Each structure stands twice: as C-alpha cells, then as structure tokens.
Amino acid sequence: MSEQPCPCGLENYSHCCQPLHLGQQKAASAEQLMRSRYSAFARQEINYLIQTTALGQQQYLDVPAMTAWSKSNHWVKLEIIQAQEKVNKNHASVEFKAHYFDGQQNQIHHELSYFVKLQNDWYFLDPTVEQLLTMKQACLCGSHQKFKQCCAQFL
Which end of the chain has fewer CB atoms < 10 Å from its terminal CB, N or C? Predict the structure, then answer.
C-alpha cells in the first residue's frame, strides 16, 4: 500500500504534516506551520487550526465557519510565493496561494499571512478575528509585551 501524498505538496503525509497534526512535533518555521495549516484545512483537522492560532485569538475563532469552509471545498494545491522567516525578532510572514475547487469552479485564495513565535512555538495571527484591543493592552499572542509593540502592526 502506497502512502498518501501530503496536501501541502512536499512529501508523504505520514512524514510531512501528519506528525504536526498529531502533536508529535512542532512546526520548525512559519512556512512549515503554514503548510501544515493548509493540510489541516484539506483534511478537516479543525482542532489543529484552532491550536495553531495565536493564543489570545483562539476563543474568538468562528469554528463552524472554518469547519464548513474546510469540508465544502476540494483542496487542490498549495503554492508558497515567499516566506520571510524574520520580519522581526518574533514574527514571520508567508505569502501563499491556496488552490481549491468550491463545487462549481476553481478558486485561488491569495494571502500574506503573519506568524508569531512564542516560547519556540509558531502561531498564526488571524486577521479575521475581531477583538477590541487597545494599543496598551497585553498582546494577544501571550508575549507579555504591549499589543502595540508586538502583533498590532501585523493585524
């Protein structure tokens, strides 16, 4: 029996994103986290998507909408345009195109995503999560810095 290719396009799933989805290893880079999140959408690993979102945003995620989007599309391929692993000390960006079929036509979701590294773990900064934070409040990522000095510029 041959192994399944990973939705992210790099290797076999069991050697690529599956260990991250199962919690057996952590993403070593923002790009690896981006790839594993794409694969999580393709494989309906919604808990992984929640766990890899910035800590202060997790409770505000629209989980039913994420689940519906994950299940209603056929995920075709991930195309990494560029990965900048050091935007600053704790932040990175990944520009990508997620190709999918929505049941009627092929679609491309093109996004520049930002990530934050906290205690050696990478997290996605979700720009769709609406939170009313002032610039002087503690950052949503859990860094103990003020929001304005940490993640504000990326959201």
Answer: N
Beta strands in the chain (DSSP E): 74-84, 91-101, 106-118, 121-125
Average pLDDT of the chain?
A: 91
Query: With b meaning 16 or more CB within 10 Å and e meaning fewer, what string describes 97-112?
Result: ebbbeeeeeeeeeeee
pLDDT tens, 55-108?
A: 989 998 999 999 999 999 999 999 999 999 999 989 999 999 999 999 999 999
Nearest Cα neighbor of 131 from 68, 55, 78, 27 is 55
Alpha helix stretches (DSSP H) within 3-155: 18-21, 30-42, 46-51, 63-72
Give dist(CA 41, CA 7) in Å, integer: 9
Listed in sequence order, the residues at least 6 apart from 152 whose beta carbon sits closer than 8 Å to its beta carbon are 133, 135, 139
Q: How far is CA 78 from CA 60, 91, 128, in A?
A: 26, 22, 20
The arithmetic mean of pLDDT across residues 131-137, rounded, is 69
